[in-house]
Write a structure and sequence with these properties.
It is a single chain. The protein is 41% helix and 17% strand. Strands 1-2-3-4-5-6-7-8 form an eight-stranded parallel β-sheet. The protein has a single domain (3-252), classed as TIM Barrel. It starts with a strand and ends with a helix. It has helices at residues 19-28, 41-53, 75-83, 105-122, 134-143, 158-166, 183-191, 222-233, 237-252; strands at residues 3-8, 31-37, 57-61, 88-97, 126-131, 149-151, 170-173, 197-199. By secondary structure, it is of the alpha/beta class. Helix 2 (41-53) packs parallel to helix 3 (75-83) and helix 8 (222-233) crosses helix 9. It is globular. The structure holds zinc ion. Zinc ion binds next to loops.
Length: 256
């Protein structure tokens, strides 16, 4: 089988110190490509360094909604420069997060819109984070002309997923889809077109069942997420691997 972890943070502690070990374990479990996602300028730069160093790693550059209040005034110049790098395959992560309250929501919305603009301008897809902000995220996305993006770590029900899928967006699932009593999210994983679905770990966070609660999470646990989704859809894990991998290949357009 052949999997892609489309969203993780090998660029932060405690994963950054163990890159070789993590990639070896991932390869043994059939994860052959990994997208490392920036949450601020420094971690976006580290993601690019990793992508230059390891052929299986690609990078995304952006400012996480929880970090926008700390970003320098010229953050956009930095991100634009990074997006020109051939191994940077996406803009992000961006979005809205109303769970933590360090960054005011008005500031988060401005950054989110700027990232959607950058995605549209560069043609590179956007990676969107949404925590406790379903309505505002949906409104901003549907008001914007961009339609090439993925909602990472999908947190909501079909009523929110449907209009975003109709708009052309993709959805990716983390270990949270394996958690008990997460029926809303499992319902979306079961109903949505498999051709629009992708897999991710969001490592080092959100370790899937049966290792839930153990930290750190790692890309090698992708098969647990694939198995759960296969189960929910009544299909084989081979089918989930094949379809989600070709979907991610087309979406990120991985270069050399
Ligand atoms: Zn993330």
């Amino acid at each position: 089988m052949n999997f892609i972890d489309t969203h993780c943070h090998l660029n932060i502690s405690p994963l950054l110190e163990r890159t070789n070990e993590i990639l070896d374990a991932a390869a043994i479990h059939d994860i052959h490509k990994i997208v490392v996602v920036g949450i601020d300028i420094a971690t976006s730069e580290i993601a690019i360094k990793l992508a230059e160093q390891y052929p299986q790693i690609y990078a995304a550059a952006g400012i996480h909604p929880n970090d926008c209040h700390k970003a320098p005034d010229n953050w956009e110049n930095h991100i634009v420069d990074m997006l020109a790098h051939p191994r940077v395959v996406a803009v992000g992560e961006t979005g809205l997060d109303y769970y933590w309250d360090e960054s005011p929501s008005d500031l988060q919305k401005i950054f989110f819109r700027d990232h959607l603009d950058l995605s549209l301008a560069t043609g590179k897809p956007v990676i969107i984070h949404n925590r406790n902000a379903d309505q505002d995220v949906m409104q901003q996305v549907l008001e914007h002309g961009n339609s090439k993006g993925v909602f990472h770590c999908w947190p909501a029900g079909w009523d929110i997923a449907k209009p975003l899928l109709d708009r052309g967006y993709r959805i990716s699932f983390t270990g949270t889809v394996t958690f008990k009593k997460n029926e809303l999210v499992q319902d979306v994983a079961a109903r949505m077109p498999l051709e629009r679905l992708m897999l991710e770990t969001d490592s080092p966070f959100l370790t899937p069942v049966p290792h839930r609660g153990k930290r750190p999470n790692e890309p090698k646990y992708i098969p647990y997420i694939a198995e759960k989704i296969a189960d929910l859809r009544g299909t084989s894990v081979e089918q989930v691997a094949q379809t989600t991998t070709s979907n991610a290949e087309a979406f990120f357009n991985f270069g050399p």
